[in-house]
Amino acid sequence: MKKIIKNKKKGIKEAGHIWYSFNEVFDELSKKPGFIEAFDEEMERFRLRKRLRALRMKKRMTQKVAAEKAGMPQSVIARIESGDRGITVETLGKIAHAYGKQIELV
Prior knowledge:
The chain is mainly alpha-helical. It has a domain at 35-98: 434 Repressor (Amino-terminal Domain), CATH 1.10.260.40. It contains 5 helices and 3 strands; from the N terminus they run E-E-E-H-H-H-H-H. It has helices at residues 22-29, 35-58, 63-70, 74-82, 89-98; strands at 4-7, 11-14, 17-19. The chain has a 3-stranded antiparallel beta sheet, with no helix packed on it. The longest helix is centred in the middle third of the chain and has 24 residues, at 35-58. It is elongated and about 55 Å long.
């Protein structure tokens, strides 16, 4: 029988390992200066990537077609959508134009 010990501050001990929940890790990290700001920035980038992919799919475009309309290689669209690459305002503008959209700051 496995021995499992639950300790609120130290996760769950099982078979010589300590397992932490997402909330335990997040709560601890959120105490560090700058973490919340960095997390919020990354979430904004995540939402942008998700929105760009959703727009492309709504337009029923492949990454290749979207890239051709934006004047860039398909690999750029793939990397942006996967989060492997950041995006400049210029690139965002080209992609927005390819989708028939404009960049709007709210």
